[in-house]
Amino acid sequence: MGSKLSQATGRRCGTTGRLSGLVIGQNGGPRSVTATGGEAGSSLNPGRLIYLCQERYRAVPGEIWATYSRQIRAVSHCLDLRAQVRETSEEGQPCHTGVVDEPVTRYAMSGDLHIAYQAFGDGPFDLVYAPGFISHVEMNWELAYWRNIFLRLARFCRVIVFDKRGTGLSDRVAGWPTFEERMDDIRAVMDAAGIERAALLGVSEGGPMCMLFAALYPERTQALVLRGTGPRMMVGPDWPWGWSRELVTPMIEAAEQNWGTGTVLSYFVQGLADDPRGQELTGRFERFAASPGAARQLLEMNFEVDVRQVLPAISAPTLVVHRTGDYVIPVEAGRYSAQLIPNASLVELPGDFHLKTFV
Q1: 3-class DSSP string for 214-242
Q2: pLDDT of residue 293
Q3: What is the mean pLDDT of the chain?
Q4: Which of 325, 328, 358 is nearest to 268 (CA)?
Q5: CA–CA separation, 108 vs 186, rounded Å?
Q6: What DSSP element (H or E) covers 346?
Q7: Any idea where the domains of the chain sit in the sequence?
Q8: Best CATH choice for the domain 106-356 from the list 3.30.70.1350, 1.20.120.1810, 3.50.50.60, 3.40.50.1820
Q9: N or C: which end of the chain has fewer CB within 10 A?
Q10: Phi, psi at 113, each rounded to 5°
């Protein structure tokens, strides 16, 4: 297992850092950061290289890691978009840079379905990013929200992103797959990428998939991060923190009718469509990620998910991050998850939104 994990994670550097038990660097001596300006390699796309490094210690990504950012070394000044960043240890060994060439889209087999994924970044461990209800691994880079998150994550780990079945560049599905089948997309992508063990980051509707995977595959789960998510979305006799059927039905109908305009996704991620150009790009993303009927089906399936019973079986160190004013998935859902997962820590952040773009 160790040799395969080493091959998958690529280069190493001597640096140490932790996020509530989540190791983000190897043990070793301190490192220095050097930056060289000028022309990047011809294979690099400068539009992908976004550096927001005005602080010596910076939260990664966005405000999510604000509480833990002091142990993350970052570039101490703004760099030109075409600059190349190279980090070295005192021994002069190269380490991860956060510079991302345009990733190659590959396919993993999950049963008879092709699941699109990308791998990028360079660091001492692998992180699988499970997105919300729609995604598109290539169009992700066209929206600053995902691009900034991925570039920040790529500074300290190898990132694997994928399109869940029925979305983006992955195969469409007929009927309703079981949630276990949908969760198996994570296993298929890890196998295809040569990863035996990884940290999982589940965002919004991607959270329950990661919860179930962590419970069923503890030996393959290094750590679990749950951002703006919960084990269930619909209200019930024993679950008061969610959506009623009276609210869900018109919301899904409105999403189907307005799909492709940029107004649906921006309901979940504030700031995506605050200007005409942003709405145009967001609408294009919606159209590429799913059809109106597929979006409706995905929303309907997500509202039926309930993985509360597996939470006590999760043994990986877990970080739950939730906004106190989240109007899509209430903060009580995050508190519930943190209470039932044995080795979990909860970080509540201010804000009356579900997800939001940050500059």
Answers
A1: HHHCHHHEEEEEEECCCCECECECCECCC
A2: 95
A3: 77
A4: 328
A5: 10
A6: strand 344-349
A7: 2-95, 106-356
A8: 3.40.50.1820
A9: C
A10: -105, 145
Can you give the pLDDT at residue 270?
85
CB 200 within 8 A of CB 126: no
Cα separation, 163 vs 139, whole angstroms: 11
Closest listed residue to residue 327, CA positions, set 247, 255, 258: 247
Q: Write out the DSSP string of 11-28.
A: ---B---EETTEE-SBSS
pLDDT tens, position by position, 36-65:
233 333 332 323 222 322 232 233 344 433
| Least reliable range by pLDDT among 22-26, 245-249, 267-271 | 22-26
The CA distance from 176 to 249, in Å, is: 18
Calculate the alpha carbon distances from 312 to 152, 228, 258 in Å. Answer: 31, 19, 39
Which two tokens mark 302? Answer: 């997500």
Instruction: In whole angstroms, give the CA distance from residue 166 to residue 185.
Output: 11
pLDDT tens-digit map of 252-266: 999 999 999 999 999
Could you give the count of Cα atoms lying within 13 Å of 224 in the half-sphere of its Cβ?
33
pTM above 0.85, yes or no: no
The 10s digit of each residue's pLDDT in 126-164 is 999 999 999 999 999 999 889 999 999 999 999 999 999
